[in-house]
Amino acid sequence: MMRVFITGSADGLGQMAARLLVADGHRVVLHGRSEARAAGALNSVPAAETAVFGDLSSIEATVRVAEQVNRLGRFDAVIHNAAVGYREPRRIDTVDGLPHVLAVNTLAPYVLTALIERPQRLVYLSSMLHQHGDASLADLEWKARAWAGTAAYSDSKLHDVLIAFAVARRWRDVRSNALEPGWVATKMGGPEAPDDLEAAPKTQVWLAASGEAEACVTGEYFYHMQKRTPKAETRDAAVQDRLVEECERLTGVRLPA
To answer: How far apart are CA 216 and CA 153, in angstroms?
Structure first.
């Protein structure tokens, strides 16, 4: 039995993954961006252990989420599922003065990775759109570029793969992997999304809890429980390290050695 924490599990793929894990007998802790959302998550997955809350667009609130998780004791796996989508308008309205997409999709998983007691496994949800992300990492705060929601989302999903691979390289005792769940008909994906919704949460559950040899790896990228080749620059240690440095600069949180 594994103990798993899932961000953004009040609905969508996070909640679907929670249901699958609970059905398999695993212990699951949920997350919602507010106390009301966390309570709603527990109502939807009543067999879950508990739920924590915090708005991941705020660095301070994300730090408090990590503190809540650590008070619950050690976890075997963390699934970094929470995200905002490619339709996001230009929003520099976070309390930290950062773009909303960057704060939620990039900085929150970085902060939680750095501050939650190190689990055995880390799972980061990316997207096929990471292939179009800007690997130069220039202008992460979108101060010079004209805003484009799809580009900002693609950048952030590239960042998630870079964080996963940076952690895999630095923390040899942790299995750290990324995946794309497919373009599916969730609130984020929209009703016209063509991929298989039932299959979408299975890879993250498999990476978090399976004892199969194919799932017990690190520094890999998956789609539907099969390895897939990520954007070439994600394998560049210098690019990984630069993103880690930028995340530390923007958040004030250091990734432990």
So the answer is: 29
**Active site residue: 110, 157, 221, 223, which one?**
157
- H-run or E-run covering 29: strand 27-32
| Parallel, antiparallel or unpaired: strands 175-180 and 77-80 | unpaired
Reply yes or no on whether 157 is catalytic.
yes
Is 231 considered catalytic here?
Answer: no
Query: Rounded mean pLDDT of 22-27?
Result: 98
**For 111-139, what is each residue's pLDDT tens digit?**
999 999 999 999 999 999 999 999 999 99
| Beta-bridge partner residues of 178 | 124, 221
Token representation of residue 133: 């992300």
Nearest by Cα to 156 from 56, 10, 254, 60:
56
Question: Which runs of E-coded beta strand occur in 56-146?
Answer: 77-80, 121-125
- Render pLDDT for 195-226 as a digit per residue (tens, 0 to 9): 667 889 999 999 999 999 999 999 999 999 99
Q: How far apart are CA 179 and CA 222, in angstroms?
A: 4
